[in-house]
Specification:
single chain, 159 residues, mainly alpha, ATP_synthase_B_chain, transmembrane, ATP_synth_b/b'su_bac/chlpt, ATP synthesis
């Protein structure tokens, strides 16, 4: 067994009774000063730069959102403008097509009328030519009939 002096044991038991969990001596204000100094140092070194970076980031995000919103509004305005111009262009193109179709139909109808008139003229010319040829053929036939009838008379009377 270890023999410890009795005075050491008594001294250890008395020191425990004096201290306890909290010692209110000169170390307490020193610890408070250390805590405050550490808070100030952390605030200067860490918290302010981090909060500045976060503020700058927030400002950048707000500016980006504002710029994006403005760009979106401008894009929507341009889209509406181009859609209106496209609608007007389509309407003009449809009007142009309708006018071209009307003009083409008018030209076709004029040409058809001219062709019909030419056909009618050709038919009437052919009809008049046929009538003239018919009359000439009838006249020739009449003369031939007269000649033949005269020849028949002569042969019948002459015998």
């Amino acid at each position: 067994m270890i023999n410890l002096p009795l005075s050491f044991i008594l001294q250890a038991s008395t020191t425990e009774a004096e201290g306890g969990l909290f010692d209110f001596n000169a170390t307490l204000p020193l610890m408070a000063l250390q805590f405050l100094a550490l808070t100030v140092v952390l605030n200067l070194i860490f918290y302010k730069p981090v909060s500045n970076i976060l503020d700058e980031r927030d400002e950048y995000i707000r500016n980006s959102l504002t710029t994006a919103s403005a760009s979106l509004l401008k894009a929507e305005e341009l889209t509406q403008k181009y859609e209106q111009e496209l609608a007007e262009s389509r309407k003009q193109a449809q009007d142009l097509i309708k006018n071209a179709q009307k003009e083409a139909q008018e030209i076709v109808s004029v040409k058809i009328k001219a062709a019909q008139q030419d056909a009618e003229k050709l038919i009437s010319d052919a009809y008049s030519q046929l009538n003239i040829q018919k009359e000439q053929a009838l006249i020739r036939l009449e003369t031939q009939i007269d000649i033949l009838s005269d020849q028949i008379k002569l042969k019948l009377l002459g015998n």
